[in-house]
Amino acid sequence: MKRLVLLIGALFSYGLAAETFQANAQYCLVCHGSNAQGNAAIQAPNLTVLPEWYLQAQLHSFQAGWRGDHAKDNYSKEMMAVAKSMEPKDVDMALAFIKGLQPVAAVAETSGDIAKGRSLYQSCQSCHGAEAQGNETMKAPPLAGQHAWYLSRQLESFRAGERGVNAADQQGALMRQMALGLSSSQDVQDVVAYISSINQQKDNQ
């Protein structure tokens, strides 16, 4: 609740209150960083590497209560509150605004065991792609370029049953089953380290 109050206060301080909400999509930057590149302080993801179709699907998930409604998922409740306050034209405006930003890949972080992570990632690549580039047909977002701390947090959310448990969230349920294939938090760190190393390899090419 305290973080939600701070978020609302930030929206007002940036001049992005209800009366200007529809006129300016920059409200996304309040939490997601000056260029929507992500914000580690509140674990807000990098939006610039996520495609429009995925962003739209996730906003719908928040609006429908598939994400952020779990009693223990305080982390996502703030975004759910913001999403539920958005009308269709607000969503369109936000998506157009983010699409117009220059993609900014996250800095590679490889604290886990990359070799083990490579092996664990084999079960992920059928949906997310060999280079973690994502696959719209499979409704799987790109993972490359995303922050390691965000990927870790989401995998742990799936494993803990905080995400992907709503009966209507078929894609979330599928991802939860895949995440449960990671038997420990160390496995999570290892697979995330491998994904992050893909980012690093691309940067060095």
Summarize, please.
This protein has 205 residues and is mainly alpha-helical. It contains eleven helices and no strands. The chain has two domains: 98 residues, Cytochrome Bc1 Complex, Chain D, domain 2, CATH 1.10.760; 91 residues, Cytochrome c-like domain (Cytochrome Bc1 Complex, Chain D, domain 2, Orthogonal Bundle), CATH 1.10.760.10.
Largest sheet: none
Q: What's the multimeric state?
A: single chain
CATH class of the largest domain, anyone? Mainly Alpha
Please provide the ordered H/E string of secondary-structure elements. Answer: HHHHHHHHHHH
Question: Strand portion, in percent?
Answer: under 5%
- In the CATH hierarchy, the third-tier topology of the largest domain is known as Cytochrome Bc1 Complex, Chain D, domain 2
InterPro entries: Cyt_c-like_dom (IPR009056), Cyt_c-like_dom_sf (IPR036909), Cytochrome_c_Oxidase_Subunit (IPR050597)
Pfam families: Cytochrom_C
Keywords: Electron transport, Heme, Iron, Metal-binding, Signal, Transport
Protein name: C-type cytochrome
Any overview of this molecule?
The protein has 205 residues and is mainly α. The protein has 2 domains: 2-99, Cytochrome Bc1 Complex, Chain D, domain 2 (Orthogonal Bundle); 114-204, Cytochrome Bc1 Complex, Chain D, domain 2 (Orthogonal Bundle), CATH 1.10.760.10. Helix content is 55%, strand content 0%. Helix 4 runs antiparallel to helix 6, helix 7 (114-121) crosses helix 11 and helix 9 packs antiparallel against helix 11. The chain is globular, with a radius of gyration of 17 Å. The model is unreliable at 4-23 (pLDDT under 50).
